[in-house]
Amino acid sequence: MAGDPIQIKRYPNRRYYARNTSQYVSLQEIEDMVQAGETVEIRDSQSGDDLTRAVLTQIIMERQPEKMSLFPSDMLHFIVRSNDAMSDFLRDYFRHSLTYLDYLQRHSAATPLTQPMHWMKAWLDGIAPKPHTEEKSRRDATASADDELADRIHELEERLRQLEAKKE
Fold it and tell me: What is the pTM of this model?
């Protein structure tokens, strides 16, 4: 099924077995899969523990060390020092940031990078999906905003008239 992660088992001898191809794969091949856009899920063959993060981190550390500069030393210190509450905050922050990064990746070629408000809207839409009544809500919000704007313009016009009357 398209979109499902590729299931990989890691055996005690540190060999990786991809179920989709029924073959052993190397870290290089796992890296190639990820770079090709595939999502992998790596589990320990005996305990069933999810090892995906550890293996992807290992790939970055060993095979792409230049990408470690994405994480400033201060941030790494902060992560090491963080308590559970701060760790939860950071986890949520990074997850939400992925929505934003995914949008940029999908639209950066088609959309000029001069429209940050569109990026922010996509990011917010990704973390807070709209209800099924999205179109009606949008129309109601637009009408409400238009009414508020009209009221505000009327109020400002009235103030201008009062100021002009005081001058005369």
Answer: 0.57
Total residues belonging to the chain: 168
Calpha distance 82→93 (Å, rounded) = 14
CA distance 35 to 56: 11
Q: Is the pLDDT of residue 134 over 80?
A: no
Amino acid letter, residue 78: F
Q: Which residue has the tokens 């029924």?
A: 22
Q: Which amino acid is at 119?
A: W
What DSSP state is assigned to residue 5?
Answer: P
pLDDT in tens, 145-159: 777 878 888 888 888
- What pLDDT, on the 0 to 100 scale, is given for residue 167? 75
Q: DSSP 3-state assignment of 88?
A: helix
Residue type, 105: Q
Residue 38: φ, ψ to 5°: -80, 155
Among residues 33, 3, 7, which one has the least CA distance to residue 20?
7
Closest to 115 (Cα-Cα) out of 107, 105, 126: 107
- Is 82's pLDDT higher than 90? no
What per-residue string of b and e applies to 100-138 under the rule 16 or more CB within 10 Å gives b? Answer: beebeeeeeeeeeeeeeeebeebbeeeeeeeeeeeeeee
